[in-house]
Design brief:
Number of helices: 14
Radius of gyration: 19 Å
CATH architecture of the largest domain: Alpha-Beta Barrel
Structural class: alpha/beta
Largest sheet: 11 strands, parallel
Order of helices and strands: EHEHEEHEHHEEEHEHEEHHHHHEHEH
CATH superfamily of the largest domain: Luciferase-like domain
Number of domains: 2
Helix content: 40-55%
CATH topology of the largest domain: TIM Barrel
Strand content: 15-25%
Shape: globular
């Protein structure tokens, strides 16, 4: 794997103009970022935004980070990522995940069931379709036969990354994926999580190094003391939203990191609709272990720390509410050029 790779993740927020998205993408390309990832929740859809970026950049790879599997059939995902690969000249990366029960059932209106088995089936069907073979697949909830994808992607194999954090999902990632894009990773726990991915690779007879480790990390470079406090406040708000408002999955993750006491209090405050208190209950220790903030040298040190614990290509992300000027400054501070 190429050393010192770095990527960027920029979300589907409504408060960002198209011009601002392009400014972020082009600056990232100019500063040596390898991939522009975008996720998908209930804002812009990932594939349309990535196509827009593809048409306005030259070398930046374009990754869905992540596309929820329940939002589309595996065949449609294969069609869409092959189309993006064709339009971009071979720059597509397919990042997949399950999202969560709340989003899938209350927004998409479909049942959140069998997430691990369905993820494995999606990867198998998509790979079969992208290979140019006729798709004949029958397992679990899926029965496909007789069709062949009628578009040729540029890449012989479009990389498929998985977003995973639970033990069984980590093992599946090692078994079938080209890359791993977890969120909310504490740097001190990255090695043990990576070990679970490597174990899955070994069970499948794969080289563990074939799975690129790309943790998505909230970053905010701030030189002045007042901006440093704003940076930490935004990060606390972002973490509290996931711990308190996104079901039990991320709450359980933070408990496994050793933050059960803090996480319980965050959930209690969130249940009372006291979002401000929930955010204030996120400790400095939680922020310092999971996010990157400080001046340029401090941020570079913290980024190197993630690499030392096993990150191959860290993905720079930004807390909700971070303004364009701060985003651009952070991209420049952490870039390779």
């Amino acid at each position: 794997m190429e050393s010192e790779q770095i990527s960027i993740a920029y979300g589907s927020r409504q408060d960002t103009t198209n011009d601002e998205v392009l400014e972020i993408a082009r600056l990232s390309e100019a500063h040596g970022y390898s991939t522009f990832f975008t996720g998908e929740s209930w804002g812009r859809d990932a594939l349309t935004l990535l196509t827009f970026v593809a048409c306005n950049t030259a070398t930046l790879k374009l990754g869905t980070g992540i596309l929820p599997i329940y939002s589309r059939t595996p065949s449609l995902i294969a069609q869409s990522i092959a189309s993006l690969d064709s339009i971009s000249g071979g720059r597509a990366i397919l990042g997949l995940g399950t999202s969560g029960k709340i989003v899938i059932e209350n927004w998409h209106g479909v049942k959140f069931k069998n997430p691990i088995a369905n993820t494995e089936a999606y990867v198998a069907i998509i790979r079969q379709a992208l290979s140019g073979q006729r798709v004949d697949y029958s397992a679990g909830d899926f029965s496909l036969r007789g069709f062949r994808l009628n578009i040729n992607p540029v890449q012989a194999e479009i990389p498929i990354y998985l977003a995973s954090l639970g033990p069984r999902n980590l093992e599946l990632t090692g078994k079938v994926a080209n890359g791993w894009i977890p969120i909310w990773v504490h740097y001190q726990h990255l090695r043990s999580l990576k070990n679970a991915v490597e174990y899955g690779s070994e069970l499948a007879g794969r080289n563990p190094d074939s799975v690129k480790v790309c943790p998505q990390i909230l970053c905010y470079m701030a030189d002045k003391s007042e901006e440093r406090e704003r940076a930490k406040d935004l990060i606390r708000n972002h973490i509290a939203y996931y711990v308190g408002g996104m079901g039990t999955y991320y709450y359980n993750l933070f408990c496994r990191y050793g933050y059960k006491r803090e996480s319980d209090k965050v959930r209690e405050a969130w249940a009372r609709n006291d979002r401000g208190k929930a955010a204030r209950l996120i400790s400095d220790e939680m922020v310092d272990g999971i996010a990157i903030t400080g001046d340029t040298e401090e941020c570079k040190f913290q980024l190197a720390r993630f690499r030392a614990y096993g990150a191959d290509a860290p993905v720079v992300a930004f807390p909700h509410g971070m303004n364009q000027r701060a985003i651009l400054g952070t991209i420049e501070a952490l870039g390779r050029k």
